[in-house]
Specification:
The protein is an alpha+beta fold. The chain is built from 11 helices and 4 strands; from the N terminus they run ββββααααααααααα. The protein is 63% helix and 7% strand.
Amino acid sequence: MIIRKILNPNTILAIDDEQQEYVFFGKGIGYSRKIGQTVADEDVNRVFIPVDNRQIQEYLRLFDSIPAVYFDITQQIIKKAEELLNTQLNTSIFFTLSDHLNFSIERHKNGLNILNRVYWEIKNYYPIEFSVGEYALKLLKKELGEILPPEEAANIAFHIINAQNVDSSTSKGMAYAKLVGGISDIVKYELKIDFDREDVHYQRFITHLKFFVERYFEGKMITENDSGLFEQITQLYPKALTIAFNVKDYIEILNNTKVTKEEVAYLTVHINRLMSNKTIDE
């Protein structure tokens, strides 16, 4: 491998005999190097192989705009993630996460913090990835003295999730989390209440949504022949039932799969429970 370009002190661009370009990562690999020199295997601890010329040009442009420190921090984050998850992440995360961290710090310095609407859901569906996000926030504070909001841990977790070899469970889990977040937003909008995500009543409600969504996607929704239950709930909790039907319409439009009457009934009960506990707390 011959050095074609030194991108930063820890990263170089090299090319082989067949003109295939590679990005090499290694601590200090760019120090005292010159274009045209060969690269020894023992100097390298990461290799990124771009899939096409267009993609490599996009990634190389990132290097011109991102300080080297972010690539160093990203390598530490990825090492932690791979240790905890016991898997190797897609190498493209070195570029995408470095870019994200750089942009997040820039936004934060300018007072622009973007909330993650599925923060709580990611925290509970992907606890390992979320813990990596929290580790990343501590690392940014230690290395750069920047304190980002807690929600940023979920944004970083997104990158970790997406960088895994996406199997059916991972992709389904992300769909579950997004639907739970969407349903939660509808309920909050209908009730005109901004719930505390750490509130025990809200957490209990989200837990129900999690199991409901899993049943929905797995085709294992509750179906009973007790029509009396639904009629009873209709009489007892009319407001909660209206909200539950709005949720039902939202889910069916989004996924084109019907929600059973029994699931609507149980959802109504949990919405009413959330309403009642919130009233008591206030």
